[in-house]
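User: Please fill in residues for this 145-position structure.
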């Protein structure tokens, strides 16, 4: 019998959360369905129901292994190659870490964090506290893109 892994379901929860937040913010989220290599999808900003052509890439990390037991600290883990990739991207890239247990997510600016120093020396794990500025929700989405 074929098997659908628990990881596959967990990943879909993160994609669903980004889709939900974008829909509430009246923005378009386009998940990457082919060649998911460092970017899980794209968000396009809309204004008054009109597409603007302003687009940002999104890397989603989903799972409670990325979150402290009390749901206040979120950790984004990657590697040198991905940070180098994101630094070369011609569009802004944001990271989103989603906790299915706490049903909350944080966002951060990967483009700003993908510095030459980080690429060479690390760290490749970044920790953020959940607060009103880092919470990924419709209000902060309008501010970050």
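Assistant: Residues filled in for all 145 positions:
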């Amino acid at each position: 019998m074929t098997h659908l892994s628990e990881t596959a379901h967990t990943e879909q929860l993160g994609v669903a959360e980004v889709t939900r937040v974008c829909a509430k913010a009246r923005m378009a989220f386009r998940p990457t369905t082919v060649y998911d290599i460092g970017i899980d999808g794209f968000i396009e900003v809309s204004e008054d129901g009109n597409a603007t052509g302003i687009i940002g890439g999104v890397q989603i990390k989903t799972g409670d292994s990325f979150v402290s037991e009390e749901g206040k600290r979120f950790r984004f883990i990657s590697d040198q190659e991905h940070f180098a990739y994101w630094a070369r991207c011609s569009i802004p890239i944001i990271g989103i870490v989603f906790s299915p247990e706490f049903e909350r997510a944080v966002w951060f600016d990967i483009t700003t964090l993908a510095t030459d120093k980080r690429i060479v020396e690390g760290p490749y794990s970044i920790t953020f506290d959940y607060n009103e500025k880092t919470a990924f929700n419709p209000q902060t989405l309008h501010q970050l893109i």
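For context: The CA atoms of residues 4 and 93 lie 29 Å apart.
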